[in-house]
Amino acid sequence: MERNTDIDELVSLPRAVRPERFGAQFRNVDLAIALAPRSEDLRIVGATHAAVRVGYTYARRYLARVTARLFVNRMAVSEADPDLCERDPRRLVRHEVEQLLDLVALGGARERVSDLRLDLREEDRAAVASLPERPIVLHLAPRWFREGSTLASTVELARRLTTLGHPLLITANAEIAEALGAFSNVGPEAILRDLPFFHWAAVFERAACVVTVDTGATHVASAMRRPTVVAFEHRYFRLASQEWAPYRVPSCSLRKPESDDEASLARFRDEVVHGVADLIDA
To answer: 88 pLDDT band (50/70/90 cuts)?
Structure first.
């Protein structure tokens, strides 16, 4: 939300404060929207006593569909259901952006703006201007190293990405600091650690392609309108690859292997590399 000129104030719920008490601070508002189908969000919205209180829940959360009416007076029901999606490959789920825009419409908005927005400044671009142009940006996160992927396999993937004719940049945060040394010998132009948020977004803006697992990096890359390869978890892939896919950009959504045997890891690396190559050549 930083720099977003549509936001006048951002207030966080303290851990020690009950949602109802927190929401009661805002009894003067006309509209309150719960942007997540969580009990805490709905309770905050209900406590505002706003004339229009909007929220949503999932189709098969039958009890939540009843209790949500205690807090909101306009409610949407999402078709997202991980079990049903796995059982029926034909089941379609709209992107989360579209579902949230429906909540905005329930709140009374008449203009639908679908573009994602991050307010980069020239100073952000200047901070990364010395980096190579049109790199492949590999964003590292813990999901690269577990459940169908491993550190060693990801190091080999990084090495293969350097053969595609574009510089390789690696971004990461302190969460995986101990793993970064393993990537120093595979040939990246730079390993960029703990960048300020908008500098990180500016790195993505320069990219020929962004490669990531299912993290916020997917959505930052979409906001920067960059082609993206994203590897989703094997479990609930059919839901995740629809609801949280790269949004309105050229993309490739892949399913991580069910196991981390070498044959499965090799196939997965091939899929990632081919996905990047296809997007770069498109």
So the answer is: confident
